[in-house]
Amino acid sequence: xxxxxxxVCMSERKGTQKLPxxxxxxxxxxxxxxxxxxxxxxxxxxxxxxxxxIQKMRDLGLALGHGAFGENVVxxxxxxxxxxxxxxxxxxxxxxxxxxxxxxxxxxRCEIYKQAGDCIMPRQGIFARxxxxxxxxxxxxxxxxxxxxxxxxxx
Length: 155
Prior knowledge:
Blueprint: E1 2-10, E2 19-20, E3 25-28, E4 32-33, E5 46-50, H1 51-58, E6 73-76, E7 88-91, E8 95-102, H2 111-116, H3 121-124, E9 126-132, E10 134-136, E11 141-144, H4 146-150
Parallel strand pairs: 5-6
Antiparallel strand pairs: 1-2, 1-6, 1-11, 3-4, 3-10, 5-9, 7-8, 7-11, 8-9
């Protein structure tokens, strides 16, 4: 499977929308994006959401920028939910992520839900941990490779 990074987004505080970066972001092994509020030693270090799913919400009349659903990485051309839990994939030239969760439980209704009557992150987003860090920027390739699943990385 192959896709493309459309945007990399971060926020300094939890509970706020993430903002797209103009330049390169750094993924840190076992942590997430350097400087992102959701990074840390847990299973949801990086969140990914497909631009195609964001577009469906835009088609409902919402003016949504990348990062509106709290996603770190906006992808295109990749069915994220087809990546099974435990599957590893390369993002950019160096970084390797491992899928840890599909969707999430929404404990409170976010602002997007209040505006549209729906929020896609709980159903369409995925979460991953960083197995190998490195730079990531919009335009980078995302690739799965069976050999990545066989390699053992220290975390």
